[in-house]
TrEMBL record:
This is Heptahelical transmembrane protein 4-like. The chain crosses the membrane at residues 49-71, 83-101, 113-134, 146-167, 179-196. The lineage of its organism: Eukaryota, Viridiplantae, Streptophyta, Embryophyta, Tracheophyta. It is a multi-pass membrane protein. One of its GO terms (molecular function) is metal ion binding.
Amino acid sequence: MFVRFWNTKIATFYEVLLDPFAFVVRSMKEDVANLIAPLMLRPITRWPFFAFLGGAMFCLLASSTCHLLSCHSERLTYIMLRLDYAGIAALISTSFYPPVYYSFMCNPFFCNLYLGFITLLGVATILVSLLPVFQNPEFRTIRASLFLGMGLSGVAPILHKLILFWHQPEAHHTTGYEVLMGVFYGIGALIYATRIPERWMPGKFDIAGHSHQLFHVLVVAGAYTHYQAGLVYLKWRDLEGCRGN
Ligand SMILES: [Zn+2]
């Protein structure tokens, strides 16, 4: 893969040296083709991708607001911290929309089943994050398990997608991104539940490097990986629609 990438780069370099005019004309043709193709191909609906982007924006907005305002008072910290977790639950549940929709858009039964299940689980996790009764320290593990459970529930649709589209390179490509996303979210939940690294050196990470910050960084990394997978899905379905199903 890597060697092929560099071979293409070197080939392009020689092409520019030998005939710059032909190269410019060809790249202009490619640009025009890229502009026209979506109009000709009738692009697939974008709402699941926008739902994911909306969930990610809500999550980042909620956590920015939380960390900006939580120093105001103890009461506000209490409310804001709950909003922080609700934002993350919204991000994880909306993350399922693009892969589930674009994998199963030609099988409405499984599409609705997986989307319905993750929506219910997402709403339950948001409620648990917001209800005061679940904020006590003894519920820390339960809250972390709910987040982890939500992430793990992605295994079924991903395996199902691989079985259905084993012949399709996009299925493997997106699964690679999804596994990476799972690793980021999984480590994030683990760090959150175990309070690493401040449990080893209390007081040393109060300003920077404590578990909650690492948790947020990993959530952003997971969301970005997922965004890349979403682009692969869009390109695949824009080009092929329901062919090969
Ligand atoms: Zn936070």
